[in-house]
Each structure stands twice: as structure tokens, then as C-alpha cells.
Amino acid sequence: MSTSAMTGSPPRTEPAQDPPPPRSTPSGKRTWRQAVRRDWQLYSLAVLPILFFLVFRYLPMIGNVIAFRRFEPGGSILGEEWVGLRYVDMFLSDPAFWQVFRNTLWMGLLTLLFCFPVPIVLALLLNEVRRTALKRFVQSVSYLPHFLSIVIVAGITMQMLATDGPVNHALTTFGHDPIRFIQEPEWFRTIYVGSEVWQTAGWGTILYLAALSTIDDDLYEAARIDGANRWQQTWHVTLPGIRPTMMTLLILNIGTFMAVGFEKIMLLYNPLTYPTADVISTYLYRTGIESNSFSYAAAIGLFEAVIGLVLITSANQMSRKTVGTSLW
Question: For 224-248, how does the pLDDT look when each residue is reduced to its tens digit (9 = 90+)?
Fold first, then answer.
């Protein structure tokens, strides 16, 4: 008999097994439950923003049903009776609506045409400034108007352009008669767009300067070695570098094309300037709040929202196909 049999061999022990790996999707990614369980502190930060959008953005959409129902103050919140497309036919056949619709298109087009490229140009110019103190001073002066209340901006605009204001004093100094800027319809679009450029250009410049800081300096060095001047470097290096930011902001601006600033127009316009100043948002206010035609105003607002949805969706698709950048 062998020695091993006499003394007896020690029992064999199985090697310790590792705990089973967490369940995952076939692609190797964690499920959303596992992600929430692991990073619940981060996800909890999104609770309040989600509640805000649910309460103040999505739940009010239920009220759009009164565009197809007759609503009376004090009655049912969802309207009294179904009227179908009656209010849609009313505003489509209303000449006053088409006038404010044209004004909205003009105002939105002018705002997009001037307010979108100005921050890009200002950012490119500041990017060429080498004196840090001068650059910071110009940045501060340009973006501080963004933090002013719209009421203050409208008040400054009206005081500057008043009949006895500084602008008319300068005109009379050069022998020109005073101009009633605030009362003349043909001046309103210029006043509105000019105040928008003054108030928003600096803030948009910050976004583009942040995008400019991410461009690799080696690209400029390679362009200089190839003999490119400053303009060619800007065209072939700088602008392509900030193109994703430009397209994102352009899509967002197109999405709000129809939602021209209600507050500023409301503070600046008057019955004399209605032919050029009255837009859909102010027309909705007068029709819905002042005249208590809530169903009619809801139909117009729904029409405006549908146009905005079509615009932002079309702009996103075109941007994806042309430059490969999109919001979704």
C-alpha cells in the first residue's frame, strides 16, 4: 500500500469563485437602473429642472385644446363645447392677423440677420487683440447690457430717442429738424433691432470666445508655414473651428424666429407704430387678455408654435446634412 494511501491525502478544495459580474446589456453597457443606482446623486440634480419643465412647459400644453373649444371665463378650464376649426378659420380670414404675421416675419428676419453675425465678428476681432487689459475692458463693456432689465433698456432707448433727447439735440446741432423716432412707424424696426444688437452682442461673444480657445495653435502654425495670411487663417482655421457652435446657436435662433421679444416691443410700441411694430405675441396679448377672446388667441398661439416647430426641425435637418452638426 502506498504511503499516500496510508497517511491519507488532504481533501481537495475548489478555488474561490469571483462574484458574478453585474448584469448588463448584450453590448456590455450598464442598464439605466444600474446607472441610476450608481450615480443617483448626479441624477437627483435633474429632478427640479424636470419638474419645472413638466409644470410650466408640458402641462400647460393641455390648454391648447381650447383652440378647438369655446372657452368662457369662469367655466370649464377645457372649454364649454367643441367648435372644431372655427377659430382657425377666423384668424386665417382676418386681415389684421396677416398684417401682424408679416410684421413678425420682418422683425424675426432682421433680428436674425443682424444679431446672429455681430457676436461672431466681435469675437473674431477680440481674438486678435493682444493687450489683455484692453480685451477685458471691451468684453466687460459689451456684455454688461445683457444683465440690464428689459424695462431699463426700453427706458434708455426712449430717453435717448425722445424729441428733446440727446440724439435729436445732436441732429439740431447739425441743422436737422428733430425726428419723432418713437412715434414714426418706419423707425420702429431699426430701433428694436439696434437695441437688440446692443443688448445681446456681448453675451454671444463670450460663447464664441470660449469656442475659439479650443482651437489647436498647431493649426495656425501649419497655416503660417503654408503661407496663409491672417484673413486666410481666419477663413480656413478659425471659422471651421467654431462652426459647431455657430450652427447650434443658429438652429436655436431659427427656432425662436417667430417668438420675437414680447416684453421689449410691448414697452416700446404705441398705437401710432402698430403698422410695423405689432407682432403675433403683442396681438395675442391684446386679443386674449384685453379682449377676453381666449380661444381665438389660443388658436393663433398654436399656429405660431407649429411654425416654430417646423422651422427648428428643418434647420436641424439641413445642418446635419450640410455640415454634420445638429442638436439631435
Answer: 888 888 888 888 899 988 988 888 8
